[in-house]
Specification:
Length: 307
């Protein structure tokens, strides 16, 4: 069972109320791969990097069953660079710098060996590149999940609406759901976005969990209350990687199994925020993941007598 992931592999500079890093590996596809590879192998990565991207980081990913045949390395250019500063609540952030660098002339090519993948995770990336990957696949995957952000809504809304018509699941945060739909009510926003294409919609609400919408159903997964959150960067991508990783592992794309998948995604995201960048994702084991999922079950499990 294979999974194709597409997105950025980057350097990030991050400032939170608890610390600062000037240059740490990041990128949407990096986080998705670290999370998903706990559940499914191979993870077939499509991205682009410059001459500055560390070989050791690629090796870390390869060790986890991530194939990098689809990661293009440009010898004379720099990797994508993003810099952000978090507010005190750690839920909201300002983007300070987005240097596209190699991303500016990226034309993703799906390697022949990736054809036939049953799951596709379109990580946060220019919408027209997300479309190009879908169009190159000879067989439509069983499930296409897509992530995006306000940056692309601001500069490429028409392309974004074209990708939306081609995907099954969209992941956005609450502010992005409002921006995309023009609706303030989250429920109205969800209805309007599901009419744009995706049959399933996940609205992430940071430390307040995530909502899964499908037709007239809605399911809520909390976020684990953590004592220390060091860096929320990549939490959304890690959530996405856990979500699609679980679906690919179980090969079941029903709404009921998606409920489990958003709990798995929330559990993976809860690790990501414990250290800067993807550092924590490199340390965790299957036992850590199982224990954390168990904590989620305890968090929301209750018996109640009808009153
Ligand atoms: P998240 O915190 O889940 O939204 O993901 C943060 C990661 O997304 C960082 O590691 C960035 O390198 C990457 N990123 C930031 N802006 C963009 C963008 N416009 N397109 C693609 N990836 C981005």
């Amino acid at each position: 069972m294979s999974l194709i992931t597409v997105g950025t592999m980057a350097f990030d500079a991050i400032e939170t109320p608890f610390g600062k890093v000037d240059r740490i590996v990041g990128g949407s596809a990096t986080y998705v791969a670290y999370a998903a590879s706990n559940f499914v192998k191979p993870v077939q990565q499509i991205s682009i990097i410059g001459n500055d991207f560390p070989e050791a980081e690629l090796n870390e990913l390869k060790k986890r069953g991530v194939q990098t045949d689809g990661v293009e390395q440009v010898p004379d250019k720099k990797s994508f660079f993003w810099s952000g500063r978090y507010h005190l609540d750690m839920n909201s952030r300002d983007t300070l710098v987005t240097d596209l660098n190699v991303l500016a002339d990226f034309n993703p090519v799906v390697p022949d060996a990736y054809q036939g993948a049953e799951f596709l995770m379109l990580g946060n990336l220019m919408p027209k590149l997300q479309i190009s990957v879908i169009d190159q696949l000879k067989h439509r995957p069983k499930l296409i999940v897509m992530d995006t952000m306000n940056f692309w809504m601001d500069i490429a809304m028409d392309d974004l609406k074209t990708v939306l018509k081609k995907v099954d699941v969209l992941l956005v945060n609450d502010a992005e759901a409002r921006q995309l739909s023009g609706e303030h009510s989250i429920v109205k926003a969800a209805k309007s976005i599901m009419q744009m294409g995706p049959k399933f919609l996940i609205i992430k609400k940071g430390e307040h969990g995530a909502l899964l919408f499908h037709e007239n159903h809605v399911f809520f997964a909390p976020a684990l209350p953590l004592e220390d959150v060091f860096d929320p960067t990549g939490a959304g991508d890690t959530f996405a990687g856990g979500f699609i990783g679980h679906l690919a592992k179980t090969k079941d794309i029903s709404f009921d199994n998606m409920k489990t998948a958003i709990i798995v995604g929330s559990a993976m995201a809860s690790f990501c925020v414990e250290k800067f960048g993807p550092e924590r994702m490199k340390e965790i084991t299957k036992t850590d993941i199982d224990e954390r999922i168990h904590q989620f079950v305890q968090l929301v499990n209750f018996d109640i007598d009808l009153v």
